[in-house]
């Protein structure tokens, strides 16, 4: 099938968006390709379409487990076989999934980068018929990027498994330095970049110094209309701000990673349906969410990088209609951001202390623990050992970079189920047992492929169909497991830590101090770039484009700076006209001239008088100002 036919059959679109066509052709030609496309630009189509055109399987690497799960679900809804392997899955579950990629009809395998630490995974990939490696959020491979992820450094090893398979690296934000580094780290055979402009003409960027943030937020929402997102720093603030807006008559709700999957889903659905007008969230909200009619995205705290801000602000106005990304800040916010950056780079002794406490927390003996994956509650851990959260979280990331362990984000993983016997044995059980027959029918009717691999199940939905309780469904499933008919993995909603090596004493724990210092310098540079954006004098869009290495001197005409300049220009023209009108009649000393002028404040009047003198349109002689240009 042609790429156009595949696009039409599986996605229902008649034509590709800008750049998608060219990127797909580059991949089909077997070329390593880097695609820079803003949020909402349709990056997934760029690897899904060519992968469907070719024999074999496409391996997609992504650090975002929630996004992986969403994409797998969307592909399955289109009858495209896809599976995901990520932190939190049991070894046997992973083993079965990999077997299906080799011997089954799977077209897309989604992997978290941590999985490439496993020799088992790498060896299985070697035996797969791979047609493409797609690296999502590719900026994560560069230490110069804003969201460096140490496990991404393993990705170049995929070349050793399939030397001739092309790489497609995808990202929404990357500076010129990061663009070069991505291609270097992924060992591109030659540089090959497709880049869409960072200019979003329909977005009116605003960065406003504001002491009364809540009052300004309320006025903005009432004035702008439509639905929007408000980003805040922590979970507590999501609830407080949402309650404030609700109390002032704005249908609003809060969202953060600590909510259950049911709560998150219901809140998202209400917002998508415009029942909830404003969602107040931490940055856990937004990835993979494609709501086109978002009219505003407001940040109540200063972001720690322009890359993060550009991505989050870019969730506004995907329908190409005018929308407003607004950043409200105070001087204290800037100072707090700098303090947080300093706290994010603990010294070597602190990192070693965290590693030691981690072993005690999980009761792992020295010389053991390799391959062990455990649920991890960061807050409880910090509370037990009296540790600050920000430096502790950073310490874990540096331990991850040095290859001691991996840390997964908190993500909801649903319950999974698989029959362990042949269909005939299950059918025999149904005939013999009236107790299990309704349960088995409910599972089989809802889930395909359940004899081949673990599939997600929802015990509450099954209970509803059987008109029984959740507890009774789980009890019957456990009985099927006990009798050897099935395997069952209960749901989890916890982050995980996995030890990659046996526990060692802190005297034998190596920590790359030089790397930490280099990362600190890079982070400080990124924060200074945010400060420069706040202090910009020309145009917000020009400022953002310049940061990403894109030269464009065209004013956007819609940001706060452009509006101020336009207002100032209009006032300047009026002041000029008034000066001309007054001085054409007769020459005047400065005080009388100023007294007769009715437009602008004294500073504005003096500024234009000086300009007119520089332009030689007025003269100053014997303390008298005169108009010298013919009327």
TrEMBL record:
GO cellular component: bacterial nucleoid; cytoplasm; replisome
Alphabetized GO MF terms: 3'-5' DNA helicase activity; ATP binding; DNA binding; four-way junction helicase activity; hydrolase activity; metal ion binding
Broadest EC class assigned to this enzyme: isomerase
Family membership: Belongs to the helicase family. RecQ subfamily.
Lineage: Bacteria, Pseudomonadati, Bacteroidota, Sphingobacteriia, Sphingobacteriales
Keywords assigned: ATP-binding, DNA-binding, Helicase, Hydrolase, Isomerase, Metal-binding, Nucleotide-binding
SUPFAM superfamilies according to UniProt: P-loop containing nucleoside triphosphate hydrolases
Catalysed reaction, written as an equation: Couples ATP hydrolysis with the unwinding of duplex DNA by translocating in the 3'-5' direction
Protein name per the record: ATP-dependent DNA helicase RecQ
SMART domains per record: DEXDc, HELICc
Helicase C-terminal domain: residues covered: 216-362
Domain (Helicase ATP-binding) ranges: 24-192
Keyword Heme: no
GO biological process: DNA recombination; DNA repair
Organism: Sphingobacterium hungaricum
Highest rank taxon of the organism: Bacteria
Enzyme Commission number(s) from the entry: 5.6.2.4
ATP-binding is among the record's keywords: yes
Pfam families for the chain: DEAD (PF00270), Helicase_C (PF00271), RecQ_Zn_bind (PF16124)
